[in-house]
Amino acid sequence: MRKIISILMLLSILLQPISSAEEVSVEDGLTRVGNSYIIQGIQEFKRNDLPTWLQLTDIGFRFQTDGAPIYSIETIQPIGVPSDQITNFTQFRLGNDLSAGTVANFVLGRRILSADKTSMYTVNTFYDHGFKYGHGRVGGGLEYANGRNKYQANMYYTVSGEKMVDPSNAIYERALSGYDYSVGTTFAYAPWAQVYIKGYSWDYNNSIDDVDFKIYTQLQVTPRLNIEFGYLDDNGGEHYGKILYSLGHKGPAMIEKGKKIFRSEDGKTIFATTSLEKVQRKNDIYVE
């Protein structure tokens, strides 16, 4: 329909009577139609009239103490029509990794809401691929949310073997297997704020196994803007910050029209996760 309207607009512009006061060329007509597309697109974005699949997409930027930025684009999509209790979903992320280059992450999962609607269970399986050297990794994860609290665990298994990264010096590297686990909670009177403690362990062949931990908080500042910052105890430790911009609306948010910043949710059950919230795990591929 939009294409038909645009064609009619173009025809009306090009076929209008030409007066001495204004002459409209084909280029001018195309420019006007192009501008109308832009204006209409901006208005639809403000109204949040984007396609549903696009509203479930996030654009992320992560900043670390070493100054190296990490970018990503990530989306989660339902498979079929979700029921009241079961949601099957797929998740895809594409981002850069400081060690493995550009990495693609694929997730297939299922979320189940308990009969009394007080708990939610998630099971997922995934595959990660690093394009720079062809590293591959598979794994699976479990998640349990009860009210404001959330518990997660993931296992990672390398499937790519050793890869030559420096032919002149015959240097090889391989992706690491390992696991992580986390505990998080949402604040009662700040439902837009969550805090997590996460632990990691990676299996090294040429050195002792690496055990790291991470403490971080996530703030849903506006329905579209999420900020994460924390401390990662990894190779000496570093502070980091991460910004996620969602193309759709998320909530509850710190700044929402008609709502106080610190508030209760009027007796509603606050979940630490939702049926179409993205699975949180280690997307970077660790190597040695």
Automatic annotation (TrEMBL):
Coiled coil: none
One Pfam match: IAT_beta
Taxonomic superkingdom: Bacteria
Keywords in alphabetical order: Signal
Signal peptide as annotated in the record: 1-21
Name this protein carries in UniProt: Inverse autotransporter beta-domain domain-containing protein
Domain Inverse autotransporter beta-domain residue range list: 72-248
